[in-house]
Design goal:
Elements lengths: L32 H9 L2 H14 L6 H32 L1
Helix pairs in contact: 2-3
Length: 96
């Protein structure tokens, strides 16, 4: 289960605290496609760390290590996915 956090609006005025809240999924609620993507990526733990940090600090600037770890995980996953798709494409071309 993942928690959806609101995306803060950035402004040029002095930074204010954000109202980050954790939302618990209800039993009859369908899983969000973004949550499904993150779950399949293998990056759920780093995503959860970002959410935990944001819930605790309510300031994205204090969560940069967690944000960077999640970004790195997703980038690595996307790279693996591209490589797999390329291999499949090459295999399909070899069979035709």
């Amino acid at each position: 289960m993942f928690y959806r956090l609101p995306i803060p609006r950035m402004s040029t005025s002095a930074p204010q605290g954000h109202t980050w809240t954790q939302r618990v999924k209800k039993e009859d609620e369908e899983e969000d496609p973004l949550d499904q993507l993150i779950s399949r990526s293998g990056c759920a733990a780093s995503h959860f760390a970002v959410q935990e940090c944001m819930a605790q600090h309510q300031d994205w600037r204090q969560c940069q290590p967690q944000v960077q770890a999640f970004k790195d995980c997703m980038s690595e996953q996307q790279s693996r996915r591209r490589e797999e798709l390329q291999r499949r494409k090459e295999q399909a071309s070899a069979h035709h």
